[in-house]
Amino acid sequence: MNGHSIVVSAFLVAWVSASLRLAGPVLVAALGETFAEQSGILNVGIEGTILLGALASFLASHRTGMVWTSLLVATLVGVAANLFLAWMYVSVRASQVITGLVFNVLALGLATTVYRLALGHSAAPESIAVFQPLRVPVIARIPFVGPVISQPAPFYLTLLLAVVSQVVLYRTDFGLALRATGENPAAADSAGISVERMRYLGTLLSGAGAGMAGGYLVLAQVGLFRETIVAGQGFIALAIVIFGRWNPLKATLAALVFGACDALQLSLQIFGTRVPPQLLLALPYLVTILAISGLFGNRAVPPAALMKPYVKD
Amino acid sequence: MKLTLEMKNIVKRFPGVLANDHVSLTIQAGEIHALVGENGAGKSTLMQILYGFHAMDSGEIFVDSRPVHLSSPKDAIALGIGMVHQEFMLVQTFSVVENIVLGLSEGAGMLDLPRAASRMRDLSDRYGLALDPFAKVGALPTGVQQRVEILKLLYRDASLLILDEPTAVLTPGEKDRLFAVLNELRQGGHSIVIVTHKLNEIMELANRVTVMRDGRALGTKSVRSTSQQELAQLMIGRDVRLHAVKLGSRFGEPILRVEELCVADDADVEKVHGVSLQVRAGEIFGIAGVDGNGQSELAEAILHLRKMRSGRIFLAGTDATQMSVAERRAKGISYVPANRRQMGSVTEMTVADNAVLGLQRRYTRGLFRSVRDARHSAHRLAERFGIRGAGIDSPAGKLSGGNLQKLIVGREITCGASVLVVEQPTRGLDVGAVESVWKELLLARQEGKAVLLISTEMEELLNLADRIAVLFDGRIVGVFDAPFRSVDQIGLLMAGIAPSGLSTRLASQENRT
Amino acid sequence: MTKLFERRLAPADSPLAVAGTTTLALFAAMAVAAIFFRYYGVSPIQAYFGLFHEPFATLHGFGYALVRAAPLALVALGTIVSWRSGFYYLGFEGCFVMGAAAAGWLSLSTAPGARLGPLPFALFLPLAVLFSWTVGGLWAGLVAFVRVRLGGNEVLISLMSNYVARLFLQYLVSGPLRAPGSQPETTLLPRGTWLPFLFPGTRGHAGILVAVVAALFVWATLQKLPLGYELIVTGFNPAAARYAGIEVGRRMMLAGFFAGGLGALAGMAEALGSQHRLMDGISGNMGFVGIIVALLSRLNPLATVPVALVYGGMAVGADAMQRRASIPSSITFILESLAILLVLASDILRFYRLNFSVLGRFKWRVSRSQDPA
After folding, report:
1. Which fold is adopted by the domain A11-131+151-292?
2. Are strands B364-365 and B450-455 parallel, antiparallel or unpaired?
């Protein structure tokens, strides 16, 4: 192999590997959000929930040093936070977009304040316990496949969750009931399904996904907590749900596309290009905008009752 | 299987209205029981209480002489009571079998659609309800969707079936098939309650009939011992025939002319196939037809609220085909839409603001809105049309249906248009409001306006129109002049049956060649 | 049997009921924030006093409150214009940044030796307003176009566009417009382009006047012009709007352009009046807090300036608290957002009637408002 192709293959390996790694958090958040939207709730608050999950996982890992426990804590914090959101969406019937948006500001305030409180006067820790990339003994040695496959455990968990979500949503009674709530809540109600209960569950599941995404970010990607660690990935997850047509497996593909865009910025550094880094950083957002602008292909048809509060009259 | 039902002294209040006023009703096993009344009589509310959709304020319900408490549809289903609503409770994107098993379980158990489908097939064979389990509901015609609804109930071992206005959306052929199924069910021991306002259907199908009016049940009669006339009188409470005094009129030039109009609906299905008509000054041109034959699409296309596929529209001689809504309004056309709350008004805004809806660019002084002129206009409308229930600075949503309609009709009549398109103007209105609206329409006719009146109520058309055209399946299949002697003919055409006995489709094809 | 909380048929909507539940909500928000104050060993009363004393009892602090209020009010006005027409635009962070960038670039171009050379302020200001407004208006108008013509979801697209705008500014201040040195920011803007200060000795600048003028302008448009009527109808009921001959798509795009322009003026005010340079993070989340101000003003343009003053004042007080007592200013984010969330939530309280008679001997019944019985 000549020098040029070595660089190219190094780039490709780095790029694909990073794509998978970066796709993880947005994917798990998108999976959770899929359940919410299929039940008729648009949960803009996942951006803030991811942040809260990230903080929770950071603090838990700092205190306990156990990564799996910390990931679980993050997930539970996400569920707890979304209990409030679910109440606002379903019982109070407040505007979903407004509530979610304001909640994100609240989450920022809470996360910043609690972080400072928890650190007290000590400096931020240098590092916390994190997930290491998995190294499967024989496969890890294969030239291209090896490094790409060596992802941290949460990545494989996320892939598993994608498959589980697909099965639950389309092959179980619960999934049928949930989807009915998002398509025609009156019909679901008439069939004896509690629309409120389904929407609560959908929102809590999105909270679980978002919380876990926060934990994923801290424990398997960045390694530390920053207030800017989410940077719009919650909104990207919302776009992934649309791009994936509210279907978990298609959302997985969409997430990989976004991961690839995100990773491009990191891996192009190998080439030492003169492209301003901000342009590459903006790429995922620009691609998202294009994807949901309606410019390409048939307009995605959302669940018919999305964002419409259900009132029995 | 057999089930008897007794509802005793049911009371139900909604904000501003007493929907059920100590209503009592008994249903016997193996009977078809009709529950009749006008719009707003309380029949649907009563049935929704029975189905557990609403909670009653007071009263008792007995199933097989045992007192029961129905707090949700689940309870009703468990007792063997099922309901087919006027608006189907079906998830359009699901298949037939998915809709049928919906709600039977919400757990983490896996769906077993093939098993459900085979049980479904057994039931559908037994009662003559042919259905493909895996067809997508959204792609099925209305009559077939109704079969899914009925099968849903049978799948859950319902013994008492409630059907709310079942024939409102059916073609005559579908109606016959439905009646056959209902007879089959009755013979199997099921009890059926049909909520309706169509008296002729009851006479041929039901065993007994209960009349409701203004929230009260007026008594139960056996169908054999009564007549349509008697039932109608009970329903309305006075002599049925409302007479409008219509003076002779000199018709002027045609102000509205429609040529070969073809219009598609939201699903891009063509609903209006080449309709041509013209309305002269000083005439009321009525369009008769069962809801769903293209009336709304026709009216909306004339106003440019819906794109037409082909055809031309002329207003006072000018080709208005390319004109926008605002331009057509400026040219002198106004519209009373069928949907008063979703299109004809903005319920969140005040009555005064609604009084100038569509006319906002006229009520100006210089660059600015003249709020004073708008309120003045609202006052005048309220006085002339007897609009009560809310001041002009209250949200229009507070007005009752009748008063809101009077506001809309009043606005469109007094805005100075020369063409008035009116769709279902008296739907859901009480008798007083109906008389009021009829009076104003006749006055508009007197003043030389051209009125296109689209209505499903024969009585309204017979009283008001100078000519009546029948719209069936998007085509004009017959035009009649006043005085209308052949009302039966009109009815047949509305059902799609041409005078010679052939279906109208064949008849009009013959005419074309 | 009467229950303690009896559900009404329709929500009580007298002004007393609304005021009552809103006040309750605000107190609840303050109580929650008080928990955090406690953690720092500060009594809540002291904390709230400190929060409001600096900005409203001292001239110096009041000046800063004006500084913070101006952009918040302008963003709130933009929110009102777009949301009331049914266009749920959330990209004010982006408009802010683009407006600031436009004004900053123009200002730098009037430095001696630069493209335009020094200009009299009377000429520069209208140019800056026009340029900022247009840039912001196009920025938001583009999203409106996508929504109206292509059917894209403006909520998500506008949220994404915020990040694009911020990155664009980051690029500008790290590259083409960067001042010599290692900081990603521009040089100080030419003194002749600064917005004038209002009171000697304070930093309160004329941006607040821009906000007041804008508020009156927005109010007049919505209430007094047929265009305003059409926008409001479009927002409430697009089908009825079309029925009334209103071109819904055009109105929405106009509203979007308008709203973007207002958001951009907020950025201009901050750049030319307060920071006097461009740097990364110039928006300080004001694009979102401004939306909250609009919500708390119940989408009424005349209320935006007072509410913005309160929120701006709180921010100033919070900074003072952070300096003096090391209490993180992020607590104000909690307070601000919780306030509006609880106000929204409190609306369901109006569905209930409180029956004190259940509690015992006292037979009087307290309704949450006048009962329209």
Report:
1. ABC transporter involved in vitamin B12 uptake, BtuC (1.10.3470)
2. unpaired
